[in-house]
């Protein structure tokens, strides 16, 4: 079994397109993952997607408006959202009721 070990905390700038989350790390790497991996981002508005902040020393990204948190080490490891379909559907239903 291999373990992902980071030599330094990855700090990033974030860009979101209509289809991808792109994290540019200060060490020069660029990660791009499909928004489909994170359904809350996929269903968020442009304004909600732009309202993000790095947490801690840059180890996670938070979208407070969408109640979404993504760890940068998870992005590096290629992990998709672990949210259950039931949880996501409850969240989505709640959003639709408030529109």
Topology:
Layout: E1 12-16, E2 20-25, E3 30-34, H1 39-42, H2 46-50, E4 53-55, E5 60-63, E6 68-71, H3 72-77, H4 85-97
Antiparallel strand pairs: 1-2, 2-3, 4-5, 5-6
Task: Please give a structural write-up.
- Helices cover 28% and strands 27% of the residues.
- It is built from four helices and six strands.
- The strands form two sheets. The protein has a three-stranded antiparallel beta sheet. The protein has a three-stranded antiparallel beta sheet with strand order 4-5-6.
- A hairpin with a 4-residue loop joins strand 4 (53-55) and strand 5 (60-63).
- The longest helix has 13 residues, at 85-97.
Keyword list:
single chain; 99 residues; alpha+beta; 3-stranded antiparallel beta sheet; 4 helices; 6 strands
Task: Provide a concise account of the structure shown.
The protein has 99 residues and is of the alpha+beta class. It contains 4 helices and 6 strands.
Strand residue content: 25-35%
Which structural class best describes the helix and strand composition? alpha+beta
- Taken in chain order, the helices and strands follow as EEEHHEEEHH
The major pleated sheet works out as:
3 strands, antiparallel
Biggest sheet strand order reads 1-2-3
CA-to-CA gap between the ends? 47 Å
| Count of helical stretches | 4
User: What general form does the structure show?
Assistant: globular
Calculate Rg over CA atoms: 14 Å
Task: Please mark out the parts with pLDDT under 50 across 5 or more consecutive residues, or reply none.
Answer: none
Mean pLDDT: 88
């Amino acid at each position: 079994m291999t373990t992902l070990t980071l030599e330094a905390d990855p700090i990033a700038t974030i860009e979101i397109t209509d289809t991808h989350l792109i994290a540019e790390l200060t060490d020069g790497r660029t990660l791009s993952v499909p928004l489909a991996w994170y359904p809350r981002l996929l269903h968020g508005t442009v304004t909600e997607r732009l309202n993000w902040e790095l947490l801690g020393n840059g180890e996670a990204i938070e979208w407070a408006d969408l109640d979404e948190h993504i760890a940068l080490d998870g992005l590096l490891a290629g992990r998709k959202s672990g949210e259950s379909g039931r949880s996501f559907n409850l969240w989505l239903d709640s959003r639709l009721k408030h529109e």
